[in-house]
Every structure is written in C-alpha cells, then in structure tokens.
Amino acid sequence: MNLEDIKRIKGLLSTPQRIAIIPHKNPDGDAIGSTLGLWHYLNNMGQNATIVSPNDAPKFLKWMPGSDKILNFEVENSQAVRVLKEATLIFTLDFNHLGRVGQMQSNLEEATAEFIMIDHHQEPSDYALVTYSDVTMSSTCEMVYNFINFLGDTDKITAEMANCLYAGIMTDTGSFKFSSTTSTTHRIVADLIDRGAKNTYIHNVVFDTNSPSRLHLLGCALKNMVILEDYATAYITLSQEELDTYNYKKGDTEGFVNYGLTLDGIRFAVIFIENKEEGIIKISFRSEGDFSVNEFARAHFQGGGHHNAAGGKSDVSLKETEEYFVSLLPKYKNDINQL
Question: Which residues form the DHHA1 domain (predicted)?
C-alpha cells in the first residue's frame, strides 16, 4: 500500500463506519483467519464491523475467536442483506473478483459503500477505492498484519487476533513449506506467537481433529489416484457417490490434492470432486517449479489463483472432465517437466 492509500484509509476509519467484511465462498483458513483478525481490530478501535460469509466454513475452523459472530448469507439471509445495504465501508478479503462470492455477488454490486480489497491472488478486478494486492505474499492474513502495521497499530494486536492470523498463515503456506513463505513471514509469525498465538494448539485443532469418515474418504481418494509418470502428473477423482458413502462434510477434502506432490518425480497434482447439487466438478490444482497452474486453470477450467496453487471447475461429467484434462497434458509436457 502506498502513502496515499494509507492516508485515505486512516481518514475513513477516523469517523464511525458501518463495516462489512467479506470472505470468498467456501472460505478456507486464510479467508476466515483474515476476516476475523480484521474484525477484531476494527471493533476494538470502536468501529461497527460485521463479517458476512457467502456460506458456512468448515468445522475445523470454528474454534477461532469470534467465529460464532459470522453471518452466513445462506442461512441468515435477511440480516446479511441488511448489513450489506447499510454498510458504508466494505472490506473484501482473500479474493479479487466479485464472482468469487457466489449468490452474494449482486448484493455487493448494488452496495453503495466504498470498497477496500486485501488479497494476494493474481489479476485483481478494479472495483475497490483502495486495492492492497500483492501476489508475492504468503497469505491474506500476512497482508492483514501488514495492513495493521501500516496504520501504526501493531501494538494493538491482541491474542485473539494473533490466533486468527497465525491460523490463516499456517494453512495457506502448507505449514510454512510453500515457496511463498519468506523470512518476513517467519518474523510475522514469531511476533504473533509473542502476542499470544498458541501455535501448537492451532496446528492440532486444524490438522488433528479428523473424523473416522474423513480418513476413510482420504483412503478412497488415494486409492483413486492416477499417476501419469510421462507427464509428472498425479490426479484424484471423487464422485458424489463416494462422498456420500463416506459421509462427506464441508472441508473434508481440504489438502487431499497435495498428496500427489509427495510422490517422487510428480510436479503437477490435481483433484476432481463431483458436486451434483451445483452441477459442477470442483477442481484444485497444485504444482512445483515453473509450471503455472494459475494460467492452466484460467485457460481451460474457468478458474485461477496462484502460480503453484489454483482452482477451477467443469460443467461436464466427471468422466468427461477427466478425459479432457488428460487430453491437455501432451501440450504441457515440457512445461510440467521443467524444474
């Protein structure tokens, strides 16, 4: 953020505002952690802030301080719509295109409030008065920490805020192993621990609270894995029937796609998950090295994201999606295999 943006935000926050804070649909740890971290900060400074999520978050994120105050647009619609209509300022966190909020999109497009975007994904849309966009950042939670620092308020980070921000950084960096994790990221995490983030507890509550059905679903996913050594690629498919068999709950497939990259010689990993209710195949892409899954997802699967981590979707059947994906690989063989 430049000095002009910082001055503009300080001016906006110098007077009482009705603030809505928005994560993307199907929010992950970074989306929930960043919105809650910012929510605590704004309310602590005397603002009237409310988080409105397009839909529910996974159970393993609901330990975060303040998560019970998040409005679910799907379930608490009338109250959520009223918050968006009455808002004088709207923060959008961890996404950069209004299409990422699902059925909330029209409500945001009709809002009269000024927008502030905080996000680390590529190719941001131009809808915000202030856009804080940095694709080199590990996570939106790291950016919220910076945002608070830009405003000169690092000393106001409470233990509640620290726990939320730590969780988002931890999950979006793959427990600090992804290439976006920098020395600055570690310094920020160290400061959050000093300010009260319970790092061991957070890791345990996020990763070590599995249900038996989730582990059985993981077993099914790994059994379905297809390894294409010529293309340094591994992909997983999960049908709606398989999800139902193992009592799938929101968030149960989080991290499954990363197992492909644990294989020696594999540099491109994908998971295809059937969603009969929405009539789509949800897709997650991961890569190592120079192969851009962001560009791949944008070109072929109506998606995008980061260089090494992206998402997309398909409107045809699971089998047709799988066949189409495999047909694309010869074109990208050299790019995938290049370190």
Answer: 246-316
3 state SS of 235: strand
Residues 260 and 124 in one domain: no
Q: What is the CATH number of the domain that holds 312?
A: 3.10.310.30
The residue type at 119: D
Q: Give pLDDT tens digits along the chain (339 positions).
A: 899 999 999 999 999 999 999 999 999 999 999 999 999 999 999 999 999 999 999 999 999 999 999 999 999 999 999 999 999 999 999 999 999 999 999 999 999 999 999 999 988 999 999 999 999 999 999 999 999 999 999 999 999 999 999 999 999 999 998 889 999 999 999 999 999 999 999 999 999 999 999 999 999 999 999 999 999 999 999 999 999 999 999 999 999 999 999 999 999 999 999 999 999 999 999 999 899 999 999 999 999 888 999 999 999 999 999 999 999 999 999 999 876
Q: 56 with 158, same domain?
A: yes
- Dist. CA 260–CA 278, nearest whole Å: 26
Q: Are 253 and 288 in contact (CB under 8 A)?
A: no
The span from the CA of 50 to the CA of 123, in Å, is: 27
- Identify whether residues 111 and 239 lie together within a single domain: no
Please tell me whether residues 188 and 222 are part of one structural domain: no
What is the Cβ-side half-sphere exposure of residue 64, based on CA atoms within 13 angstroms? 33
Label residue 299 exposed, middle or buried (CB < 10 Å: 0-12, 13-18, 19+): middle
Three-class DSSP category at 64: coil
How far apart are the two ends of the chain, measured CA to CA in Å?
33
Give dist(CA 173, CA 163) in Å, integer: 16
CA dist 108 → 21, 54, 228 (Å): 11, 11, 43
Strand partners, 118: 93, 132
Same domain, 93 and 21: yes
